[in-house]
Design a protein that fits this description.
- The chain has helices at residues 25-44, 58-61, 67-72, 104-113, 161-176, 188-196, 204-211, 214-228, 233-243, 249-257, 264-282, 348-357, 381-393, 407-417, 427-432, 456-466, and strands at 48-49, 55-57, 75-77, 96-99, 122-131, 143-152, 181-187, 290-292, 306-312, 322-327, 341-347, 371-375, 398-400, 421-425, 434-440, 446-452.
- An 8-stranded mixed β-sheet has the order 1-5-6-11-10-9-7-8.
- The N and C termini lie far apart (72 Å).
- It is elongated.
- Helix 1 (25-44) runs antiparallel to helix 5 and helix 10 packs antiparallel against helix 11 (264-282).
- It is an alpha+beta fold and 469 residues long.
- Helix content is 38%, strand content 19%.
- A hairpin with a 5-residue loop joins strand 15 and strand 16 (446-452).
Length: 469
């Protein structure tokens, strides 16, 4: 009797899900470098790095969310949680748990919960992943990093903090060196005061959303959308003329004061924006890097005053690379305390993807190690490990090649990694007490230095410090 054995091969899909970024090692190194610059700049202004849970109660996180956000939020259904041991029974009282869709709403919940234990103004930064179930398409991600920095006040928050935020943006993007950029700023009280001066009833939030689209859909598109709001041609003309006021901030403020609008909210917005600009300059922000832009509206319902958008001058199609503003009522769902705040957010995953696409960043670094140590033979491994341990104690990042085999194989590894410094440890080096350090210079040539093993750590630390590595 002949038995026939059939194998069923199940093909496992290994590519990542649409809308989820996955990077190669050299890309990840560059991504992490940029992320570290952002976080360290935030900390340089005295902001404490905090984190909140990636999973929140749906009833808490979605308390103020609009229908669009509710459609996009990822839900963790309770029936799938029975096998997760860390879930307490009290968590199951909420119909759904959800993944955070931004870092601002969890911040409001956090401040409300820990109100009695915080010092105000409360300054926090947060760099973490958030999740949105958007339709997967180019430039849109379902999982992405946001880099947030916020100041929260108790009952009130001085307008001067609205100037500190763009001074952070200025220092940050100077360090990142992505090219010339402009911080566009406005105050929504100015826009709302202007709309209050129209001789007809308008939906303020909807008008703000339309104004905010002017760069994407041009004036013709804005006119069409304003007409759909049943605005008269006179009002539409007034709105367009208003948002197109341009020039230096001194010129814009002068035109606003002489435009003929008599409205307390309007003049309050001008006064606030003048204070912000004055303090920005005093905080070292070069006026060449910012402009008062009356078309910036940030059409979200929680912004109440100063708003910001930052754009790369040579790459306007990327859109805003850093945005935010002042909010006075974000935590009202969670507490009776008034907690005004101001902050910004950078969508790092999207920004990195765009900059990589246009070639503005290069992912050339093949290893995070400062030094690669290669033993010639197995008998040289222990000396190599002692050298590595000594260097690591001095905060030098070291990769030791531990594989046995031909030296040709080891040279191939060195070539692929392309580290700044390479140390080859052989019997001659061990007996002489001197080590040869190989270093690649800008021309691509390799320099070699003989250094006493006892002086190696000091030498490399000095070289790394000198070259900012």
């Amino acid at each position: 009797m002949k038995l026939e054995v059939r194998c069923i091969i199940i093909e496992i899909i290994t590519n990542s899900l649409p809308g989820f970024m996955e990077l190669l090692p050299e890309e990840q190194i560059e991504f992490d470098r940029i992320k570290a610059i952002i976080l360290n700049t935030y900390k340089g202004f005295g902001f404490t790095e905090l984190d909140t849970p990636a999973i929140e109660r749906g009833s808490t996180l979605l308390a103020k969310a609009g229908n669009e956000i509710k459609k996009q939020v990822y839900t963790v259904e309770n029936r799938n949680l029975n096998d997760i041991k860390f879930v307490n029974s009290e968590d199951l009282s909420d119909p759904n748990l959800v993944l955070r869709f931004d870092l601002t709403v969890p911040l409001a919940r956090y401040v409300a919960e820990h109100f009695n234990n915080l010092s105000f103004p409360f300054r926090r930064c947060h760099v973490a992943k958030v999740y949105r179930g958007e339709r997967a398409q180019k430039g849109r991600f379902r999982e992405f990093y946001q880099c947030d920095v916020d100041v929260i006040g108790k009952n009130e928050l001085n307008i001067r903090y609205d100037a500190e935020i763009p001074s952070i943006i200025y220092q940050l993007f100077k360090k990142l060196n992505f090219g010339e950029f402009t911080i566009h700023l406005n105050n929504l009280k100015i826009l709302n005061g202007m709309m209050a001066s129209l001789d007809e009833k308008v939906n303020d939030l909807e008008i703000l959303r339309i104004i905010d689209k002017i760069e994407k859909i041009y004036e013709s598109g804005v006119i069409r959308l304003l007409e759909n709001q049943n605005l008269s041609s006179k009002s539409i003309e007034k709105i367009l003329k208003f948002v197109n006021i341009n020039g230096s901030y001194e010129k814009v403020f002068a035109e606003l004061k002489n435009i003929g609008i008599k409205n307390d909210l309007f003049f309050m917005g001008i006064a606030e924006l003048e204070t912000v600009v004055d303090f920005m300059v005093r905080m070292g922000v070069d006026p060449a890097y910012f402009k008062v832009d009356l078309s910036v509206a940030r059409g979200l319902d929680y912004y109440t005053g100063t708003v910001y958008e930052t754009k790369l001058n040579d790459y306007p199609d990327i859109g805003s690379i850093c945005s935010g503003g002042r909010y006075d009522d974000l935590a009202s769902c969670y507490t009776a305390q008034k907690l005004p705040g101001v902050g910004i957010s950078i969508g790092l995953t999207r920004l990195f993807d765009k900059l990589r696409e246009i070639g503005l960043i290069s992912c050339m670094k093949k290893t995070i190690a400062d030094v690669i140590i290669v033993p010639v033979d197995d008998i040289n491994i222990f000396t190599s490990l002692r050298i590595a341990q000594n260097l690591r104690e001095k905060k030098v990042k070291v990769d030791v090649f531990l594989e046995s085999g031909q030296f040709k194989k080891k040279l191939k590894y060195i070539s692929k990694k392309d580290a700044k410094f390479v140390i080859v440890v052989g019997t001659e080096e061990e007996s002489s007490g001197y080590i040869t350090v190989q270093s690649k210079i800008e021309s691509g040539q390799v320099e070699k230095y003989k250094i006493k093993i006892s002086e190696l750590a000091e030498y490399l630390c000095e070289r790394l410090k000198k070259n900012n590595l």
